[in-house]
Design brief:
Structural class: alpha/beta
Shape: globular
CATH topology: Rossmann fold
CATH class: Alpha Beta
Order of helices and strands: EHEHEHEHEHHEHHHE
Strand order of the largest sheet: 3-2-1-4-5-6-7
CATH superfamily: NAD(P)-binding Rossmann-like Domain
Length: about 250
């Protein structure tokens, strides 16, 4: 493996937006670590696709909702590639459609543990490797937010929307915290996007049901989101930090 090539780690990289980011990252010249929580076959398929296109990738297991897994995941990337230049906080969950007055404490705790605490822990490990304060050479972090952070997702999942609001705030604060240490931190905020996440929340028909209400009359694609992410990771965005880029079709 070429030690000179930059390394990209993407959490939740086995499906949907995460997989699109991994594939585009490899095509852009990164060596890619594809994180997955449980579906190794899906992660292996992303890796195989990257390798078939002459790219370099590995699959790395780890549940971002567990601190020990997060630490182990980053350690695995250290062993495999010896460096980390770019990181995408993509892993996240939704739950079934529910009002706030129907939500259990367990549901809200799980949402925040995976979407918020997990993102913080991953950012912590990325900063430890990238920051000049820690002997690193700088880098770029992109957090995946959601238009729900602005819209609130009433009647569907206010807890998910709130978790993404936390991601927006973390993005701005962390960006200012580490900007003098060579790290840029930005976020991409997708709108309705064609991925499996809707089915995981019990609404496999959500895109079809909502697309006529969207300004563009269609959902976005995972590749459209991935292009925004790779731009923010790239040197072309060298003067951009603390930005939240809406990729929501005008929503």
């Amino acid at each position: 493996m070429s030690a000179a090539k930059k390394v990209l780690l993407v959490t939740g990289g086995s499906r949907g937006i995460g997989a699109a980011i991994c594939r585009l990252g490899a095509a852009s010249g990164y060596r890619v670590a594809v994180n997955y929580a449980s579906n190794q076959a899906a992660a292996d398929a992303v890796v195989a696709g990257i390798e078939a296109a002459s790219g370099e990738a590995i699959a790395v297991r780890g549940d971002v909702g567990k601190e020990a897994d997060v630490v182990a995941m980053f350690a695995a990337v250290d062993r495999a590639f010896g460096r980390l230049d770019a990181f995408v906080n993509n892993a996240g969950i939704v739950d079934v459609k529910a009002r706030v007055d129907e939500m259990s404490a367990e549901r809200v705790e799980r949402m925040m543990r995976i979407n918020v605490t997990g993102s913080f822990l991953c950012a912590r490990e990325a900063v430890k490797r990238m920051s000049t304060r820690h002997g690193g050479k700088g880098g770029a972090i992109v957090n995946i937010s959601s238009a729900a952070a602005r819209l609130g997702a009433p009647g569907e999942y206010v807890d998910y929307a709130a978790s993404k609001g936390a991601i927006d705030t973390m993005t701005v604060g962390l960006a200012r915290e580490v900007v003098s240490e060579g790290i840029r931190v930005n976020a991409v905020s997708p709108g309705i996007t064609e991925t499996e996440i809707h089915a995981s929340g019990g609404q496999p028909d959500r895109v079809a049901r909502m697309q006529d209400m969207l300004p563009m009359k269609r959902a976005g694609t995972a590749d459209e989101v991935a292009h925004a992410v790779l731009y923010l990771l790239s040197d072309e965005a060298s003067y951009t930090t603390g930005a939240i880029l809406n990729v929501s079709g005008g929503r």
